[in-house]
Amino acid sequence: MGSLYQWIFNSENLDVNKKVLTTQTGDFSLYDIQKGVEIYISLLKRIGAIRGKRVALIVPSVPSFLNLLLAVNQLEGIIVPISPFLRKDDLTKILEFIKPHIVFTIKQYNGFDFSKTVYDWAHSIKEETVIFESDDCLNWGTLVVEGPPKPVENECIDIIGCTSGSTGIPKGVMVDLEFIKFTAEALSTSMVLSKEDRLFGMVPVSGLFGLCLLLTAIKRQVHFVVTESFSFPDIIQLLKEHSANKLVTSPSLFRALYLLTRDDEDTFYKPLTIVGLGGESISPDFIQTVSSIKNCKMINMYGLSELGCIMFSKNDIRTGIEWALTPGAEINVVNVSDEGIGELTVKTPNGFLGYYQRPDLTEEVYRNGWFYTGDLVRVTNGAKIEFVGRKKDMIKKGGQQVIPGEIEKLLTDHPNVEKAVVVGVPHSIFGEQVVAFVVVRGKVDTGELYSFCQDKVARYKVPDQIFIVDEIPVSQGKVDKVTLRQWALEKNYK
Fold first, then answer.
1. Which H helix or E strand runs over 381?
2. CB contact burial 320-335 (16+ within 10 A = b; e otherwise)
3. Dihedral sign, Cα of residue 113, residue 118, residue 119, residue 125
4. pLDDT 10s digits, 362-413
5. CA distances from residue 373 to 220, 278, 366, 377 in whole angstroms, order as listed
6. What is the C-alpha separation between 371 and 157, in angstroms, rounded?
7. Is residue 411 situated within a structural domain?
8. Which residues form the AMP-binding enzyme C-terminal domain (predicted)?
């Protein structure tokens, strides 16, 4: 196991008094973080050795989350960050899957009782579990649920990042300090980070991307301003109080922020030099919305939870996307079809350690050092890479293959379609049907959208059903296709 604490604080020219973290909670220097880590080390030592034990953190306060993360790592425990935006079913699934020895949890957050869900899970498994709970993420009470001890991990794992997976079943992405170092270098290169920067983050630090961004900023002694609340009034107030020259978020969050604040561009956007966008594809609607922001370079970052940031756009995305590899990353395209579409594979010097308790899944995607991303790309004549969809999202309809990304792009070419997501759902005759969910602007009916598609693609690619919805569901920052498939099956929409 590596020491994240030593990696951060053994840096050259360390100014411990420099303010490096600002949230809705307050401002924090490197010295404040060091003292916070010491407090949590003392707290954890009261319950004995935690080496090899899985420690779940359901901690919405970013400073407390960071201090706990570094303290657990110092004591050679394994950090399991869990989003405070999960609710009962998703949270219970992750707890049942990971079976943490120790849980730090906020009691109540955004109207949800985390304590009860954690208690119910701990009592149901009838194994020893130590629960730390708090009203404010500062003062912690302790409860021990009795039972036989859980086995500890013998592998050198520093963090297990949990994702919902494409089927809704949790996956645990195991990473170590070397993974963090590689990702820090990649993020620093793509965002051109320096100590003089003030970086604004609209990313959940409980996810591996947000966690790596947090650690990278602290390591580089960048002043990182990160929101703990994803309520836009809270985000806008924080950005107004702490204007930034660089910003990282997803395209959908940035678009929503801009629509709410564009009447005051000088306050929010004039100081910006770089906006880094990741987690979603860039839509034509997004480009159109942000076209008026001047003197600011917008880049797209491509990465995976398993490997970190792999590529970033060299140019401003509003002029097209030309990818550059981050230091040490390699790519290849395999199994190329007659249409020139193949699967993107990636190799890095420090990828993930595998999926927790799923060596079968690890072997499926990791072969001879190459990670099979599942992303389908087309290599153009100019050797540029164009993303067209996901292999696992591929719909097989009556013996024909339909790439959802192709149909999504087609639908968003309609002037009244703001966003489109296409999924495959089981069908008794054709194997799968093509189902589209669209968010529209103005007046448009599904008949018009069917006709629009029929004029442009083969009949088998035209959606069998199109549902107009108010918004697309999102889970952990990504489109929730599991829910959309369920909606289609239940025919909740007319």
1. none
2. ebebebbeebebebee
3. positive
4. 999 999 899 999 898 988 766 688 888 777 778 888 767 788 888 998 999 9
5. 29, 16, 9, 11
6. 19
7. yes
8. 406-473
Q: Where among 121, 148, 175 does a domain terminate?
A: 175
| Final residue in a domain of this structure, among 117, 148, 175 | 175
How do strand 78-81 and strand 478-479 relate by DSSP bridges? Answer: unpaired
Exposure string over 287-309, b if 16+ CB within 10 A, otherwise e: bebbeebeebbbbbbbbbbbbbb
**How many structural domains comprise the chain?**
2
Q: How many CB atoms lie within 10 A of CB 381?
A: 6
C-alpha angle 255/260/261, rounded to 5°? 100
Convert the pLDDT of each residue in 133-165 to its tens digit. 999 999 999 999 999 999 999 989 999 999 765
Tell me the CATH number at 470: 3.30.300.30
pLDDT tens across 196-221, in order?
Answer: 999 999 999 999 999 999 999 999 99
pLDDT at 427: 82
How long, in residues, is the chain?
Answer: 494
Residue 53 lies in a domain: yes
Q: Please say if the pLDDT value at position 238 is more than 90.
A: yes
Question: Over the chain, what is the mean pLDDT?
Answer: 91
φ, ψ (nearest 5 deg) of residue 210:
-65, -40
Tell me what pLDDT residue 14 has: 92
Q: Where are the alpha helices (DSSP H) in 55-113?
A: 62-74, 88-98
Name the nearest CA neighbour of 22 among 227, 208, 285, 165. 227
Query: What is d(CA 198, CA 22) in angstroms, rounded to the nearest whole number?
Result: 10
Residue 244 near residue 225, CB atoms below 8 Å:
yes
Q: What is the mean pLDDT of residues 12-34?
A: 95
Q: Is residue 122 part of a domain?
A: yes
- What sign does the CA torsion over 239, 243, 249, 255 have? positive
Sorted by sequence, the CB contacts under 8 Å of residue 382 that are 6+ apart come out as none
Secondary element (H or E) of residue 475: strand 474-475
Name beta bridge partners: 205: none
Which DSSP symbol is given to 180? H
For residue 423, tell me if it sits in a domain: yes
Residue of 248, 373, 202 lying closest to 303 (CA atoms): 373
